[in-house]
Amino acid sequence: MLIRAYRNTVQACNFCCSNGKWHSTTTNSAITNSSIEKTSKKRASSQDALFVCLLFCFIIAGSPTLAAQTEQTNCAVGTVAETVAVSQVVDGDTLRLRDGRLVRLIGINTPEIGREGRPSEPLAKAARKALQTLLGKTTTVGLRFDREKQDRYGRLLAHVYLSDGTNIEVALLTAGLAAQIVVPPNVMQLECYQTAENNARKTGKGVWQNIYRPVPVKEVSHNARGFRIIRGRVLQVGESRRSVWLNFQPRPSEGPREGVAVRIARTDLEWFGDRQLHSLRGKNIIVRGWLSPYKKQLVMRLRHPASMEIVP
């Protein structure tokens, strides 16, 4: 068992400390060339790199085939658009930069840290700690932007990389501390992130043990809000001027326009096939996204086919 644990640790460290490097085209003005050079040298230190990797291995240790899996999902970085200094890990999917900007990691969602008196979701603090561990003593990361650079809250949207080429989103997905979420038009690393999540789901790691397991529509609380993964049979596919609607079988106490529904805005239909949505009638699906109240319904907006699965 000790030999197996050792091998797993070595494999995970090979992933964390891969030889892939990112090359920056733009450097944040708040960071001097000398500080970047010092940080790069610090990252290059085998002792520091091994320390960070070993810590993170305790989070992601598991299957002996981890190295082979992560090798396929390392999401090659290529060229980063900006090199920045991190001042704070806000939560598992958000960073605060030294210049005050916030960075929301593209392609993943981690459990929410409790604020304003609300409790944290299970594993929220573990996800934040894992991100802190990944960064280690290094404060410099590379940002690779997708088609949409900012969200409606003014946060930067980016794929985030360590200087050794490690993709942070992949590391969190592989550890089972995040779920993939696709928000068009930022679909650059879609397949890569999907593969990383699948590896964690197969072994029931982290959030896949409980918190992100699909909840049957009939069991979704009327007070449910935020990110959820739900499962149900599509009773009807309807259309309105601005949306296509997937309506589930209502509970006995609910009317036809109550309960839970999935909405696909017409602005997102370009990502779906012509008849893909209408063919869902009578099928069981798993959908992920954010639930919010709308009139007497709880509505989840579906942005991309990758956030939906057809199941038996």
Question: What would you note in describing this structure?
Answer:
The chain crosses the membrane at residues 49-67. The strands form 4 sheets. The protein has a 5-stranded mixed barrel. It folds into 2 domains: 2-209, OB fold (Dihydrolipoamide Acetyltransferase, E2P) (Beta Barrel); 215-311, Nucleic acid-binding proteins (OB fold (Dihydrolipoamide Acetyltransferase, E2P), Beta Barrel), CATH 2.40.50. Mean pLDDT is 81; it is low at 1-19 and 28-73. Helix 1 (2-16) packs parallel to helix 4 and helix 3 runs antiparallel to helix 5. The radius of gyration is 21 Å and the shape is globular. It has helices at 2-16, 33-44, 46-60, 66-72, 124-135, 168-174, 190-202, and strands at residues 23-24, 79-80, 82-91, 94-97, 102-105, 108-109, 140-144, 156-161, 179-180, 215-216, 226-239, 243-248, 259-265, 284-294, 297-301, 308-311. The protein contains 7 helices and 16 strands. Strand 4 and strand 5 form a beta hairpin. 26% of the residues lie in helices and 28% in strands. It has 312 residues and is α+β, with helices and mostly antiparallel strands.
